[in-house]
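Researcher: I'd like a candidate sequence for this fold, 490 residues long. If you have to choose between options at a position, lean toward the conservative one.
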């Protein structure tokens, strides 16, 4: 809904000042997070439609007459083709153009290899904060910072960041494929001391939570109880609908997805320099209300045009459409499994049905079609496994939710009854070579991972494997079905 005239007038008064004394005692922070590659809130690549986003934010930011800063909590490229193509550089270009005072990568950004993350950091005009992030070698990445001090209205404001992988199991080291997340309290204490020693008058924590989990208020209360005094926590946790205070610290949410931005007016005690109160408002980035900054539009349009050119390139041709599902068949996933098996030269391939997000129409297939079908950036893993272990692992993978190539699965009442190679049963002692996406071999209790004799990540993106298949053949027909045979279903 559009804001009322009264609310709009009140906001205008806030933006325009409202008194010299108030201006001296306030600092405004605009906070965003989880843009995930969105440079605007709506509109597909190549579409003229758009709403919100960085161009509106810069126009809104320019209207603010109080001392001001902008911060971002990360996750910069996972949801859009522009973000994926530029590996986050499109978002960082907009962050530079505002400009922001502080930004921190989120957990999704850590899917980038260290060399890619270093390249991304090199494109940033402000130091990227990652206080509890280490390389697998237990060294701090030299291209990231643990803390920084920015100035607004003559006050020194210290920023540091924490990435929270699992709010349900906090304050434990977390090992990622290329990185290690150290204990939150240990790294926070070091960052806070460094900021205090540097003369920071206010301490602000940028806290990024794993988008796949939720952090309740109790998580923030428990964390802050273990830390030296912090004035403000800005988080991308969507469950934080409005600010709350815990002991001496405020916890407030950022605007997410570039549809909105949070405006935080920090009321500073003139005598002590400490935060005494907080006004928070979530502002919808409405182009009709705030306008769009022309300079930011040029930055955005440059990436739009680059993405449109890239994703319109021809990848291959399909003689028949490959929908996600057709009665009991899964043509898109079957085609993907065949491509994996052919590329990897393995006995069989297994792929989860969730790996394919969209099917394919008949005719020309573009790079954009491949991105839409495989947005997860999964890579192909080679697995060696004995036949009896393979059959048990297939049962544990919920056979109704996978597709296979080089195998036939016989289900009864939805459960695996037996598996064979198409020419006979799996031989218990025989070693089979499989190709699977890495999404099927994650987690300690994973049946494939726990049963495999060997496995190795090829580091080859599944999307590129399918592209390779198209490059090897001028046209593809619909793949053969009959891979999952069901009986007794009710």
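Model: Candidate sequence:
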């Amino acid at each position: 809904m559009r804001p009322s005239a009264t609310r709009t007038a009140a906001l205008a008064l806030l933006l325009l000042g409202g008194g010299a004394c108030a201006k001296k005692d306030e600092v405004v922070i605009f906070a965003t997070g989880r843009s995930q590659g969105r440079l605007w809130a709506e509109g597909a690549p190549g579409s003229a439609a758009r709403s919100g986003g960085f161009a509106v934010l810069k126009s809104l930011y320019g209207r603010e007459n109080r001392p001001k800063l902008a911060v971002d909590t990360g996750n910069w490229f996972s949801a859009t083709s522009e973000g994926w193509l530029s590996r986050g550089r499109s978002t960082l270009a907009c962050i530079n153009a505002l400009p922001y005072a502080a930004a921190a990568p989120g957990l999704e950004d850590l899917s980038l290899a260290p060399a890619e993350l270093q390249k991304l950091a090199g494109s940033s005009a402000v130091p990227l904060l990652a206080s509890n992030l280490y390389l697998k070698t237990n060294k701090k990445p030299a291209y990231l910072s643990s803390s920084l001090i920015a100035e607004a209205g003559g006050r020194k404001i210290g920023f540091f960041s924490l990435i929270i992988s699992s709010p349900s199991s906090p304050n434990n080291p977390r090992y990622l494929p290329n990185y290690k997340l150290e204990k939150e309290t240990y790294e926070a204490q070091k960052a806070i001391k460094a900021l205090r020693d540097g003369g920071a008058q206010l301490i602000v924590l940028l806290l990024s939570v794993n988008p796949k989990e939720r952090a309740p208020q109790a998580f923030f209360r428990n964390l802050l109880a273990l830390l030296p005094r912090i004035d403000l926590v800005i988080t991308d946790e969507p469950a934080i609908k409005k600010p709350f205070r815990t002991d001496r610290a405020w916890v407030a949410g950022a605007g997410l997805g570039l549809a909105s931005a949070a405006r935080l007016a920090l009321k500073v005690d003139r005598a002590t320099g400490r935060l005494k109160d907080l006004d928070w408002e979530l502002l919808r980035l409405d182009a009709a209300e705030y306008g769009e900054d022309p300079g930011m539009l040029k930055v955005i349009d440059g990436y739009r045009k680059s993405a449109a050119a890239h994703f319109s390139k021809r990848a291959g041709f399909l003689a028949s459409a490959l929908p996600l599902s057709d009665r009991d068949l899964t043509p898109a996933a079957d085609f993907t499994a065949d491509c994996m098996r052919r590329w990897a030269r393995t006995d069989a391939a297994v792929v989860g049905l969730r790996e394919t997000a969209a099917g394919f129409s008949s005719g020309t297939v573009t790079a954009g079609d491949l991105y839409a079908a495989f947005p997860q950036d999964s890579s192909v893993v080679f697995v060696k496994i004995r036949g009896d272990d393979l059959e048990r692992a297939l049962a544990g993978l919920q056979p109704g939710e996978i597709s296979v190539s080089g195998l036939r699965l016989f289900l009864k009442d939805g459960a695996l009854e037996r598996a064979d190679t198409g020419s006979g049963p799996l031989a218990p002692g025989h070693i089979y070579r499989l190709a699977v996406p890495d999404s099927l071999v994650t987690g300690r209790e994973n049946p494939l991972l726990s049963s495999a004799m060997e496995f190795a990540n090829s580091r080859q993106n599944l999307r590129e494997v399918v592209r390779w298949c198209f490059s090897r053949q001028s046209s593809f027909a619909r793949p053969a079905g009959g891979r999952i045979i069901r009986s007794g279903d009710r």
